[in-house]
Amino acid sequence: MGSFLARLRGKPRIQPTRVKAVWNECIIDHAEYFHKVILNVCARDEGIRDILRSRNKYTKSEDEIDFVLRLLAERIEIFFNGLITDEILGNSNELKQVCYQMGKQHASYATDTFKLVYWDEFTLAMIEVLEDSGSIGRDDLRAWQTLLHVVNENMQEGYFDARSEGSNRGV
Ligand code: HEM
């Protein structure tokens, strides 16, 4: 009931137990999940694809690029593994802070500012890949969506703060 009311008010709450169940029972192979997310997001948006691929100037063949994208998927998995713990899911300030820092880190990944829409594309891809797996119920999907919403919102805060700090310094 609490989460239903929170949703009506437009501020859904993180449901740690449900999120952990989604992570452990619905997303069986985490690295494979994020690899699919990256492929999905690259297919959705050429701009994102160019950024992710151009980070690896020295990679030549498609196989090599795919290998590098799989390494990125593993790093995103490590990040989510860190988030999906009692200490972080149960502590909304801590969760927001970790995401904010990760967003700040993103400010150094490309010289041009990421389009606002890129963040939503990433979030949508993470939802779509899970939804397409066919192994998840609606309430579980909503719990995952709520977590991703918090991750997205706070990463963006960190990202845009870091970008404006950089531009104030003339970077
Ligand atoms: C909610 C959305 C996102 C999440 C959860 C996420 C997560 C991550 C994580 C955990 C890493 C690895 C950090 C490390 O190990 O140091 C990473 C790297 C990266 N992300 Fe994101 N990211 C998101 C959105 C974006 C967006 C919108 C872009 C824009 C294209 C982007 C571009 C990159 C790039 C270029 C890298 C570095 C790749 C490299 O080092 O080769 N990310 N991301």
UniProtKB/TrEMBL annotation:
Signal peptide: none annotated. One of its GO terms (molecular function) is oxygen binding. CDD domains: Mb-like. It comes from the Eukaryota. Gene3D superfamilies: Globins. This is Globin family profile domain-containing protein.
